[in-house]
Amino acid sequence: MEKDFYITTAIAYVNNRPHIGHAYEFILADIFARYKRLLGTPVFFNTGVDEHGQKVWQKALSEGQDVRKYADLNTGFFKELTKELAISYDRFIRTTDKDHIKTAQWFWQRVKAKGDLYLKDYEGYYCVGCEEFKEEEDLTDGKCPIHNLQPEKVAEKNWFFRLSRYKKQLRLLIKENIIEIVPAHRKQELLNLLEKAQDVSVSRSKKRVPWGIPVPGDEDQVMYVWFDALLNYLTAARKNPRSLSIKKSDFERWPADLQIIGKDIFRFHAILWQAMLLSAGFSPSRKIFVHGFITLRGEKMSKTLGNVIDPFNLIKTRGVTTLRYYFARYIPTTEDGDFLPELFDKAYESDLANDLGNLLQRFLVLVTKNDVNLSGFIGREERLPDWYIEKMENFQFAEVLSEIWKIIGEANRLFNKERPWEKLKTDPPKARQTLGIIYRFLLDISFFLSPFLPSLSQEIDQQLKTFQPKILFPKT
Ligand SMILES: [Zn+2]
Hints:
Elements: E1 5-9, E2 12-13, H1 20-38, E3 43-50, H2 54-62, H3 67-84, E4 91-94, H4 98-113, E5 117-127, E6 132-134, E7 152-161, H5 167-175, E8 180-182, H6 185-196, E9 200-201, E10 203-205, E11 221-223, H7 225-230, H8 232-235, E12 258-262, H9 266-279, E13 287-291, E14 294-296, E15 299-300, H10 311-330, E16 337-339, H11 341-369, H12 386-393, H13 397-418, H14 420-426, H15 428-449, H16 454-466
Parallel strand pairs: 1-3, 1-12, 2-3, 3-4, 8-13, 12-13, 14-16
Antiparallel strand pairs: 5-6, 5-7, 7-9, 10-11, 14-15
This protein binds zinc ion.
The site of zinc ion has 6 residues, from loops.
């Protein structure tokens, strides 16, 4: 049996509500998952939330809340967002799920049996924002440059993961594209990072951070949140999550075919995670796709700058179709991209309402008013053309949409040139022929749009079936 095409997003950290970057990553992964399904490939799409760690613990504490309730609350917002964005995931994993905790502990023991975990006294600077120990050379004026915070000085006994043992093997796997890094320019960056990589502390003192998965056989320690979180990908790869004992062969969906992640956490996925897999005897991930950040008029969005855009608001103002369209069409998948409110409006008014919505409307009104019989015109093939597949496989979402809009433009030109509303009186067979061609165009357009704009595509299909025109994008 063919293995599922296994696609993952990063799991969102629940120390806050979702921001626009989460929405972006959900949508990228969803477009690809829907595209694969359209090809007839069995897909398993995993997304979810990362709930443990010091940052969540402290945030809950500072808000006077029980940490579990706090995690539940924010998880609720993430679930709500995936629902509003029409994300077609197969599993929404939580790192507090029972099967995940079991998998993480099973995995820990496997790595330990391999001799890759050892206890060491450690003293270092810990940035809670990054959930990571920092080297002194990583700090600017004694502060974490990302969070502008002075890291805590921590001295404790921790479990260390022998990452250094896998550096050579990893280098080869990355160089030979066994682990494929997309875009390619991230590969050199990764090889440089790998050069500097050292053994990693993978546990925390329970006294300091009680919110985590207990380390098997060590009552004083919980797992480091990254060690725990990365394992979600393996947990979701098990086909029978309820079976009591775990064997390596249970992870039938592994390896992941495509892991979609942001550039800030790229190295955790491409180094630590892959080394963990090798240690436990699993194949590495097949492909890691790294996307950029969304900026607002060229500026990074942040709470401190007060320019954060709430994805729920964007959905409320222009609808989910416009948001999905904007991200796919106007944000380059592998680079940072700008959110421009005026372009967001234009996407709705011009691209969607005018180019596409009007075309469908004019066509349907004309056909129904004149009772034009379009039976006999062949329907669509329901097959994606080569140009489409080639671009999708290279994550050229904007280029695919641009091609689809060329077809829309073509249909509009034909409509205006042939003037079927006049020809229905003077040359009915010719008018019927023109409308038949436009009908076929619209069926194809809707099919091609379905991975990008699933609910719109459904609505167009419905209208083309019932011939009952309904305005898709009302004037606002
Ligand atoms: Zn930091």
